């Protein structure tokens, strides 16, 4: 296991005016599973490649186990990497694919055999050691790529969107496999994904990136329940947080200009000002009292429904249990929102307003 420290890391590609990664600061502890998540182009893969030594660091220091790594060759960093493209050798069987790196390092044949078979057993690949990659499923191929990383017994695993080529059902199964594997091997892991579901279900901590800047670092629970800004609020959550333009007038909170939602506890200092108001789909309750809500579409997700509709002309999503949902497009319902379930953001800076939302 290893610790990794990013100190004011920056990356600017030649010919670019702006940094692809800007002032990245983070300490990753021994054995942590850290997920970098964000939209395409946010800098997450670039940051991972700087850890691996595949990209130069423009400014700042990368420190692994108290050693500055900026100029250390990739092979000397004690790192194993798993890419989106499995990059298996089609002419080698599973046994030789897993052990390829050990063979070119001229490791003793007996030790090489022991490591390969241990990794295969751990990953459920023992019955497939004689098969070629063309005979394997996508999930089995991904396990081979993981096996190739495991046999190196590295203290750090780097994974760059390793599940993106798999179908949805297999991705779910492989998420469980990767968490189990991490718990058994114990290596410090950085995992890159654009899929916030992967981030929420796998990470010890999540690093949310946008345009090369860290937006928030925290546990899955923390970034979901306490988003730092509008971007995090809209990015984390499936479906995402509902966000509506609002204002505070005479101690009351209004959204979409004229819909009075509730009293405005903690917002007294914002009287007469605009705010962005957010609430999670599960926080709103469809009852006999409250704000008018017009149903536009109902999505069945198995045990629950996502109910799409309008509130004061703005689109929102409300979640309801499948056993209680009897709604159809065009229904006029009442939406109950409690002040304690509302989030408030500055519409100009996007930053969350720290206010007492009540109980």
UniProtKB/TrEMBL annotation:
Keyword Nucleotide-binding: yes
Keywords, sorted A to Z: ATP-binding, Cell membrane, Membrane, Nucleotide-binding, Translocase, Transport
Cross-referenced InterPro entries: AAA+_ATPase (IPR003593), ABC_transporter-like_ATP-bd (IPR003439), ABC_transporter-like_CS (IPR017871), ABC_transpr_MalK-like (IPR015855), ABC_transpr_MalK/UgpC-like (IPR047641), Mo/tungstate-bd_C_term_dom (IPR008995), NA-bd_OB-fold (IPR012340), OB_MalK-like (IPR040582)
CDD domains, alphabetized: ABC_MalK_N
UniProt cross-references to Pfam families, sorted A to Z: ABC_tran (PF00005), OB_MalK (PF17912)
Domain ABC transporter: 4-236
Molecular functions (GO terms): ATP binding
Gene3D superfamilies documented for this protein: 2.40.50.100, Nucleic acid-binding proteins (2.40.50.140), P-loop containing nucleotide triphosphate hydrolases (3.40.50.300)
PROSITE patterns linked: ABC_TRANSPORTER_1 (PS00211), ABC_TRANSPORTER_2 (PS50893)
Keyword tRNA processing: no
SUPFAM superfamilies: MOP-like (SSF50331), P-loop containing nucleoside triphosphate hydrolases (SSF52540)
Transmembrane segments annotated in the record for this chain: none
PANTHER family per the UniProt record, alphabetical: MALTODEXTRIN IMPORT ATP-BINDING PROTEIN MSMX, TREHALOSE IMPORT ATP-BINDING PROTEIN SUGC
Record's protein name: Sn-glycerol-3-phosphate ABC transporter ATP-binding protein UgpC
Species per Swiss-Prot/TrEMBL record: Peptoniphilus equinus
């Amino acid at each position: 296991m290893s610790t990794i420290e990013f100190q004011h890391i920056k990356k600017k590609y030649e010919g670019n005016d702006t940094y692809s990664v800007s002032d990245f600061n983070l300490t990753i502890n021994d054995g942590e599973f850290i997920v970098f998540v964000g939209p395409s182009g946010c800098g997450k893969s670039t940051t991972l490649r700087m850890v691996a030594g595949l990209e130069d660091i423009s400014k700042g220091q990368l420190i692994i186990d108290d050693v500055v790594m900026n100029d250390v060759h990739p092979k000397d960093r004690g790192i194993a990497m798993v890419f989106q493209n499995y990059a298996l050798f089609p002419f080698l069987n599973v046994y030789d694919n897993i052990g390829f790196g050990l063979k070119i390092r001229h490791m003793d044949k007996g030790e090489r055999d022991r490591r390969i078979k241990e990794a295969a057993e751990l990953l459920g690949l023992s019955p497939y050691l004689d098969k070629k990659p063309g005979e394997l499923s996508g999930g089995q191929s991904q396990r081979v790529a993981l096996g190739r990383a495991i046999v190196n017994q590295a203290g750090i695993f780097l994974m760059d969107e390793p599940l993106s080529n798999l179908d949805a059902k297999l991705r779910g199964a492989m998420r469980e496999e990767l968490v189990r594997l991490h718990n058994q091997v114990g290596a410090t892991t950085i995992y890159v994904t654009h899929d916030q579901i992967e981030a929420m279900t796998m990470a010890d901590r999540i690093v949310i990136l946008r345009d090369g800047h860290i937006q928030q670092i925290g546990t899955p629970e923390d970034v979901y329940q306490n988003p730092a800004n509008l971007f995090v609020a809209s990015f984390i959550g499936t479906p995402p947080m509902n966000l509506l333009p609002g204002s505070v007038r005479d101690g009351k909170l209004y959204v979409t200009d004229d819909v009075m939602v509730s009293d405005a506890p903690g917002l007294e200092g914002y009287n007469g000002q605009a705010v962005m108001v957010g609430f999670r789909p599960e926080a709103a309750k469809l009852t006999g009292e409250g704000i008018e809500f017009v149903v536009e579409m109902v999505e069945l997700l198995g045990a629950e429904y996502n109910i799409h509709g309008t509130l004061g002309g703005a689109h929102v999503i409300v979640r309801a249990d499948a056993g209680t949902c009897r709604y159809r497009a065009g229904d006029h319902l009442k939406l109950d929102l409690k002040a304690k379930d509302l989030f408030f953001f500055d519409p100009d800076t996007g930053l969350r307003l720290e206010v007492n939302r009540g109980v």
